[in-house]
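pls ignore typos typing on phone
pyridoxal-5'-phosphate + seq
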Amino acid sequence: MTATEPMIALPPTDHIPRQYTGPSKAEIVAMRAQYTNPAIFTIYKDPLLIVEGYMQYLWDETGRRYLDCLAGIVTISIGHEHPKYVKRVQAQVGTLNHATTIYLHPNFPMLAKKLASKMPKGLEVTYFTNSGTEANELAVAMARLHTGNSDIITLRHAYHGNSATAMGFTGMHTWKFALEHGGRVHHAINPDPYRSPFSGTPEEVARFASNDVRDIIRTATPGKVAAFLAEPIQGAGGVTHGAPNYLREVYGHIRAAGGLCIADEVQTGFGRTGDHYWGFENWGVVPDFVTMAKGLGNGAPIGAVTTRMDIAKSLTGRTHFNTFGGNPVSMAAGLAVLDIIDEDGLQANCKARGAEFRSGLEQLKRSYSLIGDVRGMGLMLGIELVTDHATREPAKGQAADILEATREAGLLIGKGGLDSNVLRVKPPMCITAADVEFALDVLERSFAAVGR
Ligand SMILES: Cc1ncc(COP(=O)(O)O)c(C=O)c1O
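k done
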C-alpha cells in the first residue's frame, strides 16, 4: 500500500494516469466561488477534484485512484474513456461536428434505427435532444398534442429534470426540486412499500397507490389527463419502486382515461437493471414513450424520446427544431455505447455483479441496524439508513458520514431520497467481481466506523 492508495487495496489496473498539471484545487474552488452560480454544489466536505477516468476508476489530481460506484449519477454506462468508444468519438470529432439535422448525415437515423431494434415493436421513432430534461419535456409536449389534454400525473419524490416544466413534475412541498406548474401536474402517492402511508403487502400497497392515480383522474383531471410520467425505479427519489402490479394497474387507469404513458429510462435503461434492457420490462408494461439520456452517451450530452409513429406525427403540425439534437458526434457516441453494451456483455454483467453486490448488502443489513432497507435491481441499488427500524426515522447525518468514510477509503457512491438518507450504488456497468468485493469491504468498514 502506498501513501496514495486506500487502506483496503483496490483491484489492480494497467492504466497509468497522466501527471496533472492544471490549476490547483484551491484555485478551482476559488474560481467556482467567484464565477459560477452558487446553486451548483459539490458533494463532499472537502470537494473532490477528479482529473482522469478509465473504465470503472477515477483519479484525483494527486494520482489517487477511486472505484466509481456513482458513474457521474448513472451517466457512465460502458466505462470511463472505454478505448473503443474514444476511438469512434474521436474519429467523428475529427471528421464532422456539425450541429444540425437540416442536412442529411448517416449517424442520426442509424442511432434511431438501432434504438428501435432494442424497443418493443411499435416504439420505433426517435427524436434526439441534449438532455433528459428536454426528452421529458418533449414527451409531455407530444402527449399533450396527441391527446388534446393538458394534465400530467407524476409521482411524489420524482426527479425528471431541471427546466421550469420538469421542475413542476416533482411533487410540490415533498422535494426540493419542485417548482410551480400552473396546476397542470398532479403528484400521486409513491408506491414504495418501505415508506408508504398505506400498510399491507407490497402488492396491496401498490394497489392503494395505483388507486390514487385512478382517483386523481376522477377528481382532479376528469377528461384532461394527457400522460403519466414515472421512472420504472425512482433514482433520485431513493431507488424505490412499487410491486410488479403497480405500473400495470396505473397504465390501465391512464389509458382508460385517454392518456399516454411515459417511462423515464434515464437511469434504468440500457441493461442496468440486469434482467432486461429497459426498466419497464421488469414490470411487464409497454409505455407509449421511452425517454432516455445519460448512459446513452457515456458522457456525451444526449437525450432521446422514442415513441410510436402515430404519436410522433403530432409534432409535424409545427416547426420543431433542436440545434444540437441528433448531431453527428453525440450520435457516434450513442452508436458506440449501444454496440459496446452488446459486445462487452454489460447487461449480463449488471445481473451477475448486481446479484453479488445485493447479497453483500443484505449481509451488511444483518450486521448493522443502521440499514433499514436494501433494494434495487442489477447495478441500481439503494441502502436506506434509519436510526430506528420501528419508526424508520431517516438517518440523514449517518448517511453523510458513510459517504465521507467511503470516499476516504477510495470508493465513490451517492446519496438520495427525500431525506438524503439512501446510499446509492450505480457504478459503470463494467465493474468486476473484485471491484464489488472491494466496495463491500469498504462499506463494511465504513458502517463499523460510523456505528450500528
Ligand atoms: C430519471 C431522470 N430523468 C431526467 C433527468 C434529467 O436529465 P438531464 O440532467 O440530462 O437533464 C435525470 C437527471 O438526473 C434523471 O435522473
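Residues 1-5 have pLDDT under 50 and may be disordered. The domain at 86-343 is CATH 3.40.640.10 (Aspartate Aminotransferase; domain 2). more later
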